[in-house]
Amino acid sequence: MAVGFGGLSIVEANRRLMEYANKVVEAISGQNGPALRDLLAVTSSSLVCYTIATAMDVVKDATRIMKQMDKHGQIADMLAQHMRCMQSFYHKHYVDAYGALDKSANAFLQEFRNWETAWAMDALYTVVYELRTIAEMADKEMSMSGRVPDRLKGAGSFLMKVFGTLAGKGSKRVGALYVTCQLFKVYFKLGTVHLCRSVIRSIETARVFDFEEFPTRDKVTYNYYTGRLEVFNDNFLAADQKLMYALVHCATSKVNNVRMILKYLVPVKLSLGILPKEALLEKYNLREYLDVVRALRRGDVRLLRHALEAYEDEFLRSGVYLVLEKLELQVYQRLMKKIYIIQKQRDPSKAHQVKMDVVVKALKWLEIDMDIDEVECIMAILIHKNLMKGYFSHKSKVVVLSKQEPFPRLGGRPVNS
Which residues form a coiled coil (predicted)? Predict the structure, then answer.
């Protein structure tokens, strides 16, 4: 008996591949979605992947074996490529794995379109997830070898075809939101977030979609990504609404997911003037925000700047650096409020008149060196932005605060710890 790679005989290798192929055909014939999903998994199915990969190493080419399945033409073609994908993935040849999976995924989509019901939705989710995941791995491999990475972009094009298949009427439309979320992941990874708009319009304006019909998992992911988009556009009220939806409906057991939501929700809340409790930040390992919150609470400009400098790389990667940088005005507002409160305790009749030299001295105590002209400019911005109500007297170098709510609240509700 001929023996191949790793002591596996050619006969045994052929048997394993045919057994796998027959299981896939049985799952399709019996419309067994969960079974088909597990059989098509690559990155998360180490045993299946190992079994097929080692058999493929012996057989070399599964095309001849698949010819025995002539009556399952499209499925046979799909399986030959899918097994080649598993072989390449097992040996960490991710570019080759992606190329084979791309062909397999397109063949699967052709079959999926012909199935009248949504029984294979879980299997489609697996194909979509695997293609996106392996595309990312392939792009890393290409970058390391000096080539231009373009596989994730290709995966995005395939996902748009899948979205088009699901976007019509019928039971399959329930999968549209999952594919949308996978597209978001592709666009965010590629830095082409503007491409999200057309998909969002399709979901939020198309009459065939009822948002409440979608699975909670997909609604949470969708609101997380659209909330992040609102953060980038400085639409903090909309961002707050979407990210809070994601937070409230996210399973508390998914600690990493809760942390990712809070990573963007915290700066949104801060922008709305709401300070989360430090215990919440500690609980979800968001220590990078601790000094930002303390700076706001104390009106400490120096501490805010130090916090932004210390975690600059992390904030830039998250895309929240500019949002946090704009909090400096709130810190000045809180500093002015502290000065106002101290003056009110000493002399209530003159509490609403804040001299510029007092502000200069307070800043100098915080090791922020500013002259009166610079402080005047900041006071003018605070008044213009409605962070402080009053007017500026240039002649006497005094800010005259309104006696009615001199420091307007930015609104919103606090984050629960």
Answer: none
